[in-house]
Amino acid sequence: MCCAVSLVTSHHPPYFFRAVDSPTHLLVPPLSSSLLEKLGRTLPIKGRHRKTVIVHATSNVRRNPNIAKLQAGYLFPEINRIKMKHLEENPDAKIISLGIGDTTEPIPQPITKAMAAAAENLGTLDGYARYGGYGAEQGQTLLREKLAERFYADVNIQASDIFVSDGSKCDISRLQMMFGSNRRVAVQDPSYPAYVDSSVMIGNTEMYDHASKQYGKIVYLACSSENDFFPNLSLAKDAELIFFCSPNNPTGAAATRDQLIELVRHAKETGSIIIYDAAYAIYISNPNCPKTIFEIPGADECCIETCSFSKYAGFTGLRLGWTVVPDKLKFADGSLVKNDWNRLMCTSFNGASNIAQAGGMACLSDEGMNAMSELVSFYKENAAILKNTFEEMGYTVYGGTDAPYIWVSFDGRDSWEIFTEVLTKCDIVVTPGSGFGPAGDGFIRCSAFGHRENIIEAAHRLKESFSRS
Ligand code: PLP
């Protein structure tokens, strides 16, 4: 917005202006006196200098300094921006996305039918009386019970520990809100960007350091093939919160039982809390890799687990997930973490969409479980195609067997450079490894979410342009 204003304070910043046609005061911090001289017209009024200048009006509200610390855009919108620019410059390009990690296959019919019926039901007096209006902030009781039965039957987790939500990413930010600022946080490096970005936003970090490509105060736990993608936890000895994701996005590594025993032991010894992201647990086939952290004895005293229907059943746009906060998990003062989580959810969330919850219930029926399993197998076949392609091309590849992601090594090359080369030569969008943390540089992540013909076509294009053998 531009407006004509008059100066109402002296010539030292900050400058206050009054809009010519209204009494509103505007704060304009960055203008220097010399710039004002250039822009303005001086009119002496009662001993004061009145200047008429054109300025951009601002509010008086200071920008959140924590949000101001964030670098560029969130990774995926940034990738999308570059993709759109490429399309603008190459309107005929047939872009294939192996980038963002969004599901592509339709939600299985038994699940969509249940949601359609739920929607119809809301259009009736009786149906609305039973299912309409605000639901429980914690989720429908039947859904919480079904989640407990399907995923936590053999571990010490009850339906009342499960909080249904609009997805894991939202819960990650709400968990940050619950713990509040000035926490000492550790993350796997590389990892899903939401852990770091939400830590920055809540005020858990210092400024970004361009040399190390890290935010001050966060402990980055490097995970690479050298440590079998499991970090040196002694580096996190002072951390209060440790974000841990298995199967990992982006490396595709699923932690073994022994590794998770070590993780839980570390948390119990140091008194930290693990925020365990199991968004891809359903992709695990290795029987030696637990599907929930609560398979590990003692985890219910030091872990929160977050999970989602997004990659289980194509609910990325529909939005449904859950977070488990066990009864035994306590703050230093002995109070229950679960009580604060419940309080927070009641204040900041009004319950997941009742239609999405009907979909969640359908996912957990026998038919729904089979349909999810087929969907996951389909994406895992895609993963196998991509993994084999890169291996045949002479690359070292990780992941892809217990996760829908392939982590491809380009031997230390700048990963944004590889990303650009793949986009330019093949019209394929991948994700640069460094977008997940500094230890991700030298890698790209390829997502196995795609229609089969696109995955096959992508494999063909990659072979043509990037084969080493
Ligand atoms: N956690 C991880 C590791 C993810 O990769 C994603 C999405 O890509 C999420 C959480 C977000 O899940 P949701 O769609 O439930 O917000």
Structure description:
There is one protein chain. The protein has 469 residues and is α/β, with parallel strands linked by helices. It is built from 15 helices and 20 strands. The chain folds into 3 domains: 5-62, no CATH class; 75-106 and 369-466, Aspartate Aminotransferase, domain 1 (Alpha-Beta Complex); 109-367, Type I PLP-dependent aspartate aminotransferase-like (Major domain) (Aspartate Aminotransferase, domain 2), CATH 3.40.640. The chain has helices spanning 33-39, 65-68, 75-89, 109-121, 125-131, 141-151, 168-179, 193-202, 257-270, 310-313, 337-348, 354-363, 366-392, 415-426, 452-466; strands at residues 2-7, 15-19, 25-28, 42-45, 48-56, 96-97, 162-165, 185-189, 208-209, 214-215, 219-222, 241-245, 273-277, 303-308, 321-324, 397-399, 405-409, 428-429, 431-432, 443-447. The protein has a 7-stranded mixed beta sheet, sandwiched between helices. A 5-stranded antiparallel beta sheet has the order 3-2-1-5-4, with helices on one face. Strand 16 (397-399) and strand 17 form a beta hairpin. Helix 7 (168-179) runs parallel beside helix 8 (193-202). It starts with a strand and ends with a helix. The model is unreliable at 41-47 (pLDDT under 50). The site of pyridoxal-5'-phosphate (PLP) has 13 residues, from helix 7.
